[in-house]
Amino acid sequence: MIRKATGLVALLTAIVLQVQAAEDIPRQLITDYWQAETEQEQQQLAEQLKQRAGDAGTLYRWFALGPEFSSSVATGIVEKERVSAEGISYPWVILVPESYDASRSYPVEFMLHGGVGRPKQEEGASLWRSGYESLQQEDRLVVVPAAWNEAFWWHERQAENLTEILREVRRLYNVDDNRVTLTGVSDGGTGAWFFAFKQPTEWAAFFAYIGHPGVLRSPQSGGGYRLYFENLMGKAIYIVNGEEDPLYPAASLQSFIEILEQEEVNHRFRVIEGGGHNTQWLPEEQEAIEAFKTANPRQPFPAEIQWVSDSAERFNRNHWIRVDALEEEGRPSLLRVNRNDNVFNVTAYGVEQFTLLLSPRQLNLSDPVMVSVNGRIVFTGSAGPDMDVVLQSAKERDRALLYSSELQIDVPD
């Protein structure tokens, strides 16, 4: 059996090498674009890639193969810093296996700490109270970002920050894009709820420990968000709360859990009998948590997808659908799409305009595409690949969710 598996790997490797040779794939140019640190660098490389590829289909195949990752990267406990356009410094740490192998892809786990009401950590201070050693694992990359009293996990600036940090991780390390998870403890658990409700595209599953989604509704907490449970469809959530937790007892989440059950959201709710506001239960729960991760990779191109949004400016995208304009900003709108081969049936309420982001992994772009909205056919024709769309999609550095074309649709009156 081992010899058969080895032979199959060798055969697949030979096929890949043959395809590369036949197409003369400029791997270094792809790698340079992928790892470029500035918009200006990418723009210069984009023109070279367009000329070299000649057509969008070829360019898409090159990026789907991906860059060549280097083994000469930092391992162990690596301290980083991101400076936003506002000039705010966001420290973060990545824990890289000492045995890191650039030829294989690694799952990524983001760990959101609690206590965000405190001032920003001093330079050099540990972002994880119990120390990073407790988080290090040889089979994955672990990312520990920072939040504080001016940058809660559920603030818009953190929504941008975590996305940019993930892109930076993908820039340098070989990531298994469909196995990126978000775990949070206490305020971090509340943060995990926030991303599940508002920005789920990047993540395979969420792990909300001793947090509470109700915090997100409160204007006093800096949130004041409306929570749309329809947005949790298609994602997996593992929830743990203590029975005797003085802050967020398990019973206080019961109304939320009932909605999850009604909406058939993929979730597990663990009540720790006699448990307080701590994670003493974690060692015993670890095996079940890891099994949940294994069973729930991200599905990048689900055939059915929906999104409820009250803004076309923020939190307006779910995987391959994006809300571009609403009938009334601030009023909840619904976009639901069912795809059957190249036919898209759309239900839209309160939406004026939306975009479908398309990939050869979803459908055959050589054939015509048909889009119907609320029972009316609004588009029939070609949705062939576009080099600018491929290049823009590649900036997200998500090889599993790479697009080659897009359709912007106006909702009929």
CATH class of the largest domain: Alpha Beta
Tell me the overall shape.
globular
What string gives the helices and strands in order?
A: HHHHEEEEHEHEEHEHEEEEEEEEHE
Strand segment tally: 17
Measured on Cα atoms, how large is the radius of gyration?
22 Å
| Biggest pleated sheet | 8 strands, mixed
Which structural category fits the helices and strands?
Answer: alpha/beta
How would you describe this structure in keywords?
413 residues, alpha/beta, Rossmann fold, eight-stranded mixed beta sheet, five-stranded mixed beta sheet, disordered N terminus
Put the structure in a nutshell.
By secondary structure, this protein is an alpha/beta fold. It is 28% helix and 27% strand.
Describe this structure in words.
The chain has 413 residues and is α/β, with parallel strands linked by helices. It has 3 domains: 2-54, no CATH class; 76-295, Alpha/Beta hydrolase fold, catalytic domain (Rossmann fold, 3-Layer(aba) Sandwich); 304-410, no CATH class. It is 28% helix and 27% strand. The chain has helices spanning 2-23, 27-35, 39-53, 56-65, 156-172, 187-198, 254-262, 282-295, 387-394, and strands spanning 76-83, 89-96, 106-112, 141-145, 175-185, 205-209, 236-242, 266-272, 304-309, 317-318, 321-326, 333-340, 343-349, 351-358, 369-373, 376-381, 405-410. The strands form 3 sheets. It has an 8-stranded mixed β-sheet, sandwiched between helices. Strands 9-12-13-15-16 form a 5-stranded mixed β-sheet, with no helix packed on it. The chain has a 4-stranded antiparallel β-sheet with strand order 10-11-14-17, covered by helices on one side. Strand 12 (333-340) and strand 13 (343-349) form a beta hairpin. Helix 4 (56-65) packs parallel to helix 9. The longest helix has 22 residues, at 2-23. Residues 1-22 have low confidence and may be disordered.
